[in-house]
Design a protein that fits this description.
Length: 291
């Protein structure tokens, strides 16, 4: 019995020592002196569509989070703008600058909240993990500044997030941060309520005829994007929405109102940007990019 106990102790200490060594060796292995580590600015050059959607869905928080956000033009803003218009080039530069800030701050928030304790970012090449979490990434794919520190994770209470980018919508992630059990029944993940800010928002009540036709309550309403810090700011936004509403849609103007609301803050947007980036960059994207 004593011999069996000694074997178990030695095996346990050996596994711990091996894991300790590998945790130091792997980061060294993925740092190739022949291929400089990609910077955050470099991996941010490909702006994900989900990041651009954040500006449309949360314009107030987006403007507060990223300097130069006013030059980040959405597809709606660019409609009718000539291809050779300099505003397009300025917009691309502004998007990349904002994306760089978002990825840096989002990664820092992810580490600070210890998300990596329960969500790993390493698909192991064993036990058919690729079927559950996506392909095993190469060392070159992880040779970038956002992989420092290496976020292997200590356990998998939640799913691996190596290829999380684009798998779910921004709305899903917002709901998941606010109340994880609402999107993942049985989840033990805590609610990240401090990533949300109370404020005021413009709402539009549904058309009564549409409500009756769809079997909805006549008081049903939906928000106009933008959660403002004060009621006065929200009322100014309401007037802007009214001014942009065509003259022949008076009923639409009359159904607008201002009411309390809540939305993700600047840190939450950065964290969302980081989650929606995971797995979207690989080493092949370095081709043709100035070093």
């Amino acid at each position: 019995m004593d011999r069996f106990t000694s074997i178990l102790l030695a095996a346990g200490l050996g596994c711990f020592a091996l894991a300790f060594v590998l945790s130091g060796v792997y980061p060294w292995l993925i740092t190739d002196a022949r291929e400089p580590e990609a910077t955050i600015a470099e991996v941010a050059r490909r702006v994900t569509p989900e990041f651009k959607q954040l500006k449309e869905a949360y314009p107030v928080a987006f403007a507060a989070a990223f300097p130069g956000a006013d030059e980040c033009l959405t597809d709606k803003d660019l409609a009718g703008v000539p291809l050779d218009d300099p505003r397009r080039a300025r917009s691309e530069d502004a998007w990349r600058a904002a994306h760089t800030i978002a990825l840096r701050d989002g990664r820092d928030a992810y580490v600070a909240e210890a998300c990596w304790h329960c969500h790993s970012q390493y698909v192991r090449p064993v036990a058919n993990e690729a079927q559950r979490f996506g392909r095993v990434r190469s060392a070159a794919d992880d040779n970038n500044a956002l992989q420092r520190p290496v976020l292997w994770g200590t356990r998998r209470v939640g799913p691996d997030l190596t290829h999380e980018g684009g798998r779910r919508s921004n709305d899903w992630h917002v709901a998941h941060l606010r109340d994880p059990a609402s999107t993942s029944p049985g989840s033990i993940m805590p609610r990240y309520t401090w990533y949300f800010r109370d404020g005021w928002q413009v709402w539009r009540t549904i058309d009564p005829e549409l409500a009756e036709r769809e079997g909805l309550a006549p008081t049903t309403r939906y928000p106009i994007p933008g959660v403002y810090a004060t009621e006065a700011e929200a009322r100014s936004a309401l007037e802007r929405v009214r001014a942009e509403t065509p003259e022949n849609l008076h009923a639409e103007r009359d159904r607008l109102e201002v009411a309390p609301s809540s939305g993700p803050n600047e840190t939450a947007l950065a964290l969302l940007a980081y989650l929606q980036w995971l797995g979207t960059w690989d080493a092949s994207q370095r081709e043709g990019v100035p070093q």
